[in-house]
Design goal:
alpha+beta, globular, five-stranded antiparallel β-sheet, 263 residues, four-stranded antiparallel β-sheet, binds cobalt (II) ion, single chain, binds 2-amino-4-trifluoromethylsulfanyl-butyric acid, Creatine Amidinohydrolase
Length: 263
């Protein structure tokens, strides 16, 4: 059974998730062709610790980074390293923090410099699919309704939904019940209840849905090497609708300022 959070707990998850958005924005302000992804990871770790928080991913099942930085054909869990960003890259940044024992978790996909129109549209529509799901996420709906919204929207463009990885509950652990797939049937799965906190995180492929894990034990990439986009919000379920606990506001301010570098 998924946990029901008190309003006080939800505010703690919000505080942590808002710091994640600020961290990703700080990272975005340093994105440019030629920067190694490990540099972005260091910027994120310093920023998080300077704000009195802990990087939630670092050490999680032995994960080495503060961020997951997933470039082009990498879907999620890309380990920061020597790989340099280059013009035309699709870069997904996934970040988690812990403040006062409560986790924040959010992700955003960026384009570097001149990106192909098909890649730009993949990012736009993946983000739109997240908001389609959020729009119906309220008490009384079911987990399958969320997946249905994402899947119906992105498949209408010929994209495919990654099924091997899913969203999740969030609280005093990074991954709590329930699992939140990005595919599903309307009216199926467990019921959403007032006070549940979940992360919805569509991972959408331009090509086929098949993915593989690299030999590093983390990196997930598309089998056909075509690009994949990823966006994630943490939300609280309320009777009237979803309360979005994370925020893309600061991230999008940076994008709008640096439109020639990232979009
Ligand atoms: N946002 C990802 C998730 O919800 C982050 C987990 S990556 C890990 O699954 F490195 F922490 F494992
Ligand atoms: Co997540």
């Amino acid at each position: 059974m998924a946990q029901i959070k008190t309003d006080i707990e939800i505010e703690k998850i919000r505080k942590s998730s808002l710091l994640v958005g600020k961290t990703i924005a700080e990272v975005a302000s340093h994105m440019r062709p030629g920067i190694p992804t490990i540099e972005l990871d260091k910027i994120a770790e310093t920023f998080i610790r300077d704000h009195g928080a802990l990087p939630a991913f670092k050490g999680y099942h032995g994960y080495p980074g503060t961020l997951c930085i997933s470039v082009n054909e990498v879907v999620v869990h890309g380990i920061p390293g020597a790989r340099e960003l280059k013009d035309g890259d699709l870069v997904s940044i996934d970040c988690g923090t812990i403040i006062d024992g409560y986790f924040g978790d959010s992700a955003y996909s960026f384009g570097i410099g001149e990106i192909k129109e098909e890649v730009r549209l993949l990012m736009v529509r993946t983000k739109e699919s997240l908001y389609k799901a959020i729009a119906i996420a309220m008490a009384g709906k079911r987990i399958g309704d969320i997946g249905f919204e994402v899947q119906a929207y992105v498949e209408s463009f010929g994209y495919s939904v990654v099924r091997d990885l899913v969203g999740h509950g969030l609280g005093t652990s990074l991954h709590e019940k329930p699992e939140v797939p990005n595919y599903g049937k309307r009216g199926s799965g467990s019921k959403l209840e007032e006070g549940m906190v979940i992360c919805i995180e569509p991972m959408i492929n331009l090509g086929g849905r098949s993915v593989m894990q690299e030999r590093d034990g983390w990196t997930i990439r598309t089998s056909d090497h075509k690009p994949s986009a990823h966006f994630e919000h943490a939300i609280a379920i309320r009777k009237e609708g979803a309360d979005i606990l994370s925020s893309f506001e600061e991230i999008e301010q940076v994008i709008n300022k640096n439109i020639q570098i990232i979009r």
